[in-house]
Amino acid sequence: MAAPSGRRNSSGAASLWPVLLLAAVALRPAEAVSEPTTVAFDVRPGGVVHSFTQSVGPGDKYTCVFTYASQGGTNEKWQMSLGTSEDHQHFTCTIWRPQGKSYLYFTQFKAEVRGAEIEYGMAYSKAAFERESDVPLKNEEFEVTKTAVSHRPGAFKAELSKLVIVAKASHSEL
């Protein structure tokens, strides 16, 4: 509650209006994001390279491609979520195993975006599940370029459970 100002208003609510307005402006998101599209897919072991692709935005403006090879175990259910900002200038691609940690041994991975340039990319060895938090890969295990988040050969320790990319629309030439 605000400290008394020494002035009396005929209505206590009137004195709260400027505070509520400032709070609403300060707390509003910088850019609204559309409801993400989430699609389930199987990550299959066997050492063979597989890809999963989804597009989002007006005219499928943005594409996210997850390419990987893994060993051990059986198929795992994973998900890819894509969302765009209200003005369609940014998009997100999140690829993860909803059950948290993957038990597959990844020999390689690459999450690539088309139609945009990456502003933020992160890879995790363990995805948040129940009371546990995301566990990021060490910086030396992966690299982020303008269009992809991928493993670093020789440094990647084969554990992957989540990838997150935030990208901005590529500039087109006139």
TrEMBL record:
Transmembrane segments: none annotated. It comes from the Eukaryota. This is Myeloid derived growth factor. Residues 1-32 form the signal peptide. GO terms for biological process: negative regulation of apoptotic process; positive regulation of angiogenesis; positive regulation of endothelial cell proliferation; positive regulation of MAPK cascade; positive regulation of phosphatidylinositol 3-kinase/protein kinase B signal transduction; positive regulation of transcription by RNA polymerase II. The lineage of its organism: Eukaryota, Metazoa, Chordata, Craniata, Vertebrata. It comes from Rhinolophus ferrumequinum (Greater horseshoe bat). Keywords: Signal. One of its GO terms (cellular component) is endoplasmic reticulum. The gene is MYDGF.
